[in-house]
C-alpha cells in the first residue's frame, strides 16, 4: 500500500530542507545576491555551489565545513524555451547541502534517503523513488542499498559523472520521483520512459556530486586532498510534487502571478488555450527574475546583466500584448512576487515600490521602442513589396529582435499578414554571431580552481591589533612560505614570500580598504623587510607579503611598524566613505545600495546602485551633508556584538559580505551605523574637509563617486583656485567673481559671430547655386546637374538640394564638396523619376571614387569619403551611370 503524499507549500518545503541539515550540524548560509561578488567568471549566480567556490578550492576555510542553503539563481542560456516546457525557468531556487572536506558518501546518502522518506520530513513513498549512479562507483551503490533503496530502483548510468574540465570532478548520483504514467508525456512503451529519460513521468529532484578528483591539465584524474559534497535540489520541482501540480507553474510560486495576469487581460484565462498558457508562464517566470535581479542591484541596460533584464522584460511585455494587455502592467506584479517570497526574502517586498518604479519606467520606454520597431518593420515591408521581394532578410529580422525586442514569431506574424516570409537561416546566423560575441565578452566558467593546501591546514591563531596599535614589538613568525612551499627561512631576493605573525598591526585588505604597508625590524633596529601587501589566509589570519632586505626566520621575533601617515589618511577616507554612503541614502533615497568601494591613501571611490542621473543639485547636497557631519565633530565609536543585536541597531549590511557570529559595528553618532571591520578616525573632525572630484555611470544602474579628504581635498581646491585665478588674468578681469559674467559676455559674442558666419556662408552658397544650376546635362535617363561646390559640409549640400527640388531644375542632382582630407557627396532624384532611378544606387556607384560609401532613400542619398581629389572622377562617373 502506497503512502499518502504530504501537502506542503513552497515555504514549508524550503524550511524543512534547511532544518533537516541544520539538525545534522550544517550552518545555514543566506541566499547570496544574484549579482556575483568578486567573481568575473559569472554573469549571474547560477547555482548553489557558485557561492561556495572559494571554500571548495581552498581559498577560504569556512568556520563550519558543513553548510546548507536555498540559493536563488539565474540561468539564461535557453530563454526561448521558458513557458514552452514544464520546468524551465530563468530564475529558480536551488536547495543544497555542502561538505568541504568533512563528510562523504557514507553520510550524505543515508541523510538523503532519510530526508526524502522519513515521515518526520518529506515522507515520500520509497516505491516512488529511483536512483541513478555512475557504473564504477561501487561505494555509492553499496551506500544506497544500505540506506534502504531496493536493488530494482537503482540504475547505473554512464552520464552520472560531473566533470567540467580542469578542477574538482567526480561521480554523482541522481534521485527521481515517479509521478505515474498518467502524468507522462510519452507512451508507456516509449524507449525514453525510464528514470533519466526524456519524459515527464520520472522527475529528477536531486543531484548529489561526490567531488573526489582533480581533473589535471594533463587530463588525468588525481585524488583531491579534501573530498567534498555538492548537492542541488530544485525547489520548484519538489513543490510541484507536494502540490500535485502538472508543471512547476501550477504551484504557489507562480499561480498568484498567473491569476493576477488573468485580471489584467480580462479576456484570456489560464488552462483554456495552450498557446495562451505559454504567454502566462512567460510573464510569471520573467517578472520573478526581473524583480529579484533589480532587488539585488542590477538594472536594465544594453549590456551584460542589464541586457538580460531588458530582454526578459520585453519578452514579458510582448506576451502581455498577446493576452490583450496593452498598458504597462508588469510593475503591478512586483508586490505579488514579494508576498509569495516574503518568508525567505523579505527585502523584495520592502523594496517593492522602488523595483516597481524601475520596471514601470522600462515598460513605458519599451512601448515607445516597440512603436519604433513597428515603424521600421512597416518600412521594411513596404520596400520589400516595392522591390518585388517576398521575404524579409534575416539581418533585419534580427535587428528587430535585438534592438527593438521583437520576437522572431512577432515579425513573422506581421510579415505573413502582408504575404511575406522571413529569412529564418539569416536570422539564426545573426543570432549565432551575436551569441558568439557575448560568449567571448564574458568567459563564463562555472568551474573551480584546483585545490591548494599551502595555508589551508595552517590554523594557528594570529591577532590583529591595528585598531589601537600601529607598532608591535616581539611579533613571532609562526608561518613562513616561499613560492608556495612552507620554509624555515626566507632570503633576500626570494620571490612570493608570505609570513604570518602571532600578532600584527598590519590591516589585511578587506571591505574596500587597502592593506597597510610598513617595516619589519630586527632586535638590533635593522630593516629586515618591507610589508608590501596583506591578505587573509584561508583560515583568516593576516597573511603578509614581504620584500626582504635580510633573512627572515620562522620562530624568530621582530618589531612591526605600520606606515603611520599612510594609515591615518586611509582612516580618514574610510570614515568619509561611511558619511558619503549615508548622505546618498538621505538625498537620493533608501534604495541606493553600495555596489563597491575602494579606500586608498589619497582618495576614495564609492560605487552605488541608482536608477537615473545624479543632478548637480543632488551632488552638492550630498557633499554639503558630508562636510556638515565633519564640522559637527561627531565621535566615531565601534562595538563588537552578535549578528542579531547588530541588526536591531539598524546597522547597514552589504550583500557582498558574509558575517559570522560576532560582528563589528561602526557608529557615527546618530547619523550612520554600519557593519565594518575597517579602520576609522576617532572623531569626524579629523577628516577636516571632503570634496567630490567626479561622479558618473560605470555600468548598468551603477554610479561612481570619487572624492578626496583632508590635505588632498585642500590641494584639489587649491589647484582649482589657481586655475580660476589664471583664467581671470587671461580674461583681464580684476576680481574672480567677475569671471562668470565675462565668460557669458564672450559666449554671447561668439554666438553672434557664428550667426553672421552662417549667414555669410548661406549667401555664398546661394551665389554658387545660381551658377551651378545653370549647367544642365542631358543623359539617356534624364537631365543631370553635377558640380563641385565650396560649402561648409553636408548640411549646406542638403540646403542646395532643397532649393533645387523646389525649382525642379533637373531630374538628377549630384553635388560634392571637399576640404582637409574629407569629401561629402549628395545625390538627389526628382520624385517622378524615383521609379527608374534610385539615389542610393547612384551614390553607391560613384562613392568609391572618393574612397567612401553611403546610401539613403530613393530620392536622396549621401556619402562621405577621405579622398577629395576623387570628386571630379565621381561627377564624371555619375554622368556615365545615367548614360547606360
The domain tally reads: 5
Main sheet characteristics? 9 strands, mixed
Highest-level CATH class of the largest domain = Alpha Beta
What's the total helix number? Answer: 22
CATH-defined fold name of the largest domain? BirA Bifunctional Protein, domain 2
Strand fraction: 15-25%
Give the name of the CATH architecture of the largest domain: 2-Layer Sandwich
What is the alpha-carbon Rg in Å?
A: 35 Å
Q: Classify the secondary structure makeup into a structural class.
A: alpha+beta
CATH superfamily of the largest domain: Bira Bifunctional Protein, Domain 2
Helical proportion, percent range? 25-40%
Catalytic activity: tRNA(Ala) + L-alanine + ATP = L-alanyl-tRNA(Ala) + AMP + diphosphate
GO molecular function: alanine-tRNA ligase activity; aminoacyl-tRNA deacylase activity; ATP binding; catalytic activity, acting on a protein; transferase activity; tRNA binding; zinc ion binding
Pfam families: DHHA1, tRNA-synt_2c, tRNA_SAD
Coiled coil: 736-770
Label this structure with key terms.
single chain; about 900 residues; BirA Bifunctional Protein, domain 2; Elongation Factor Tu (Ef-tu), domain 3; 9-stranded mixed sheet; 6-stranded antiparallel barrel; tRNA binding; EC 6.1.1.7; RNA-binding; coiled coil
How is this structure best described in words?
This protein is an alpha+beta fold. It has 5 domains: 10-250, 2-Layer Sandwich (BirA Bifunctional Protein, domain 2), CATH 3.30.930.10; 256-441, no CATH class; 463-562, Elongation Factor Tu (Ef-tu), domain 3; 569-719, Threonyl-trna Synthetase, Chain A, domain 2 (Threonyl-tRNA Synthetase, Chain A, domain 2); 767-882, Diaminopimelate Epimerase, Chain A, domain 1, CATH 3.10.310. It is 37% helix and 24% strand. It contains 22 helices and 35 strands. The strands form 8 sheets. Strands 1, 2, 3, 4, 5, 6, 7, 8 and 9 form a 9-stranded mixed sheet that branches. Strand 6 (161-162) and strand 7 (167-178) form a beta hairpin. Helix 3 runs parallel beside helix 4 (138-147) and helix 15 packs across helix 16 (616-631). The protein is globular and about 100 Å long. It starts with 9 loop residues before the first helix and ends with a helix. The relative contact order is 0.05. Mean pLDDT is 88; it is low at 441-447. Its EC number is 6.1.1.7. Keywords: Aminoacyl-tRNA synthetase, ATP-binding, Coiled coil, Cytoplasm, Ligase, Metal-binding, Nucleotide-binding, Protein biosynthesis, RNA-binding, tRNA-binding, Zinc.
